Each structure stands twice: as structure tokens, then as C-alpha cells.
Amino acid sequence: MRLCMIGTGYVGLVSGTCFADIGHTVYCVDKNEEVINKLNSGKSSIYEPGLNELIKKNHRSKRLFFTSNISYALNKSDIIFICVGTPSKKNSLSVDLSYVFKAAKEISKFAKKKKIIVTKSTVPIGTGDQIEKILKNKKKFIVISNPEFLREGEAIRDFRYPDRIIVGSNENKSFKTIKSLYLPLINKGAKYFSTNRRGAELIKYASNAFLATKITFINEIANLCEKTGINIEDISLGMGSDVRIGSRFLRAGPAYGGSCFPKDTKGLISIADKEKVDLSLVKSVIKSNEKRKKLLLDKVHTIIGKNIKNKNIVFLGVTFKPNTDDMRDSPSLGMIPYFHKKGANITYYDPTGAKYEFVKLKNCKFYNQINLACKNADLIILHTEWDEFKSLDFNKIVKNKKFILYDLRNLYLPKEMKRKKINYFSIGR
Known about the structure:
Oligomer: single chain
Strand content: 5-15%
Largest sheet: 6 strands, parallel
CATH superfamily of the largest domain: NAD(P)-binding Rossmann-like Domain
Number of domains: 2
Helix content: 40-55%
């Protein structure tokens, strides 16, 4: 099949490249000429393990094309995917759908023949209805919802071996086409589930809200563990062994971040408020997650004292999770400026390089080597669980022998740290 992906951000680029890799012809379109030129040279515009190689392979095989000409891409394709961003509106719980509606207007303007329009962006209930209103000739287009469930850092595997493929449509004849599109994955065991369009839109929001709830729940239990001398990892293992609960997303740590959970929990609340439905549980999750950010800052003061002026604080990892360069709603975005404002000297190392978010902070410096970042540390905050942080010899890389290690990801064992005479703190232990 011939596909058009509108938007070469995370969803559009990964999905488009993987669709090409299973044999479809894909046209990825973006108005940013710099991004298109980079992609045409075989370089990914986002950080995702394995993506560069797939782009080069399928670009060479003439299955994957990149262009800024939306009219060309639309009319070369049978199925059009809307893969643009849907961020939260500034100072609001509601979702900014301007990019989605702009894409719909361009489809209406340039598409000459009948097309299937697939919303892959995460959108509120009823967005498909609004897209239909924008499209001038409804008979010309079929609008369906096909939410994505790609985890950053694991996106290629998630596409190839999905837990489920959700397709929502109000016209039954479109199911056959989309099922055929995904047939190579279904034949390998992927679960295919069809529903109406609004149902598919809500499945995405409900899924992310539930996962955010699991994270928030185990973080609150971790707080109790710290007060009662219990190991949170024992609790997670004991709970997760119950098949009704499952072990995934039961790892205690900082507040959740990233491109999905913060905005999607807010977006779900916004939808419910409009319908006058009280989602009190999800509201509590958002509130608890915000509280956790302050709780961890208070914990740092407990560890090294109220006055942190001139203290050397090191961050190992600043992205919200490993195997991505995504900084959206990363806990570090609140912690680093806070410590900087208090007069601390901040150094950090991240495998994905320096971050523009911290460029304007005078006492914040990026090092491209772990040992250089940690050399004069008073406090090391292990922020992101990159693999290269899992077996460090801190006594060798830190000159200050009185340094403190605050492990937000529980990568190290307290007994081992005690044996090495390292002043060690972790989460829920």
C-alpha cells in the first residue's frame, strides 16, 4: 500500500519507517526543510535506537521517501496518517489540536481522490468528528482512529511486536483495508481489535492514565516504605507476581514525565470536565505526581542540608527515561534550575549530549565523560537508568571521598554501597 505520514516527529517517523520496512511505500512529509534534508541524507531527526539503520535501508530500497511537498505526498498515497503533535495548551488542561486541524485542512485542499484518513496522533474523544467537519466532501474521505502505543527507546520493537492494534471507525468497510495494512504484524501474533472511532480515541487516553496511576501508586507506597524500614522492591515483586496486577510500571522513582503521561492525564481530565464527569482518581494522580517533585527536592535537603550554596551537585542522565533524548517533562527540568537558583554548582552527563534547556544557567555545565562530571561531586543524583550507569566504580571516579550518592532509580544495592563505604540513599529502601 502507499501511505502518507503527515509529521516526521516521533510517531510519524518511527511508524512511517517501520511501515516501509514491512513492505509498504511511505511518503513522510514535513514543512521543515532542514529536517527533510537531514532525513534524505539518511540521518534520523530524532534519537531512537536502530532507527538510523532502518531509514537508510528503506530509503535506498525506494520504499521510504521524505518531502516537504504535501500535495505530492497526499496524491501519491491511498492512506493518510495524521502524526502531528498534540501538546497541552499553555496554562490549561486541554489539548492543543491546532496541528491536527491544520493537517485536515491541507488534506481537504490538496487531496484529489478518495482517501482513508487515519488519526495516529493522541487526540481527545470526538476529534475524528471535528476532522470530518473540516473535510469539505465527506464522501471523499473516511476518517478513522488508530492510536499508537510506541515506547520511546523501544519503539521499533513495539511496532514490530505490538501488544495490540486498535482501529476505530464508524464505517465497517474501512476495517478490512486497515487490517490488510497491518497483516504482516497480525500474522506474527499481534492482537487486532476494532471498535468505533470514539472508542479508539478513549482507549489511548485511558491506557496512559492507568499506567500513570500505577507509577504514582508505587511511588506513594515507596514513601511509606521509607518510613517503615521496608524494601519497596520486595513490595513491587510481591504485587507484580499477581497476574491481575502485573509487574510493569511498578518501579518506584521520580515523578513520571515524558511526552505522553503528563499531557494525556490532563487531556483526559479536560474531556471529562466538559462532559461533567468527575475523574477524581486521575485528578489525584496528577496532584500526587506534582507533589512528588517537591518531595524529592526536600529529600535532597535532608541529605545534604538546607544550605546548598557552592555545593557540587552532579546529575547522571537528564532525560525522562533511557534510550531517548526526550526532555519533555523530565524531572531534571525542575530539579536542576531549583538547585542552580539555590547557588549550587551543577554538572551533568547524558549519553545524548548537552541540553539547550540548561544553556542559560551560569553554574550548570555539561561534560561528555562521566568521570569528568563526577570528579568533584558533593552529591551525585542518579537520575536516568542508562545502562552505562549500572556498574560504575564511584570511589575511583570521585575525588571527594565524602560524596553522597542519591539513586533515584535503585540501580545499586544498599549492602554493596555500605561495603564500599559510600554514603548512599535510594527510593523506598
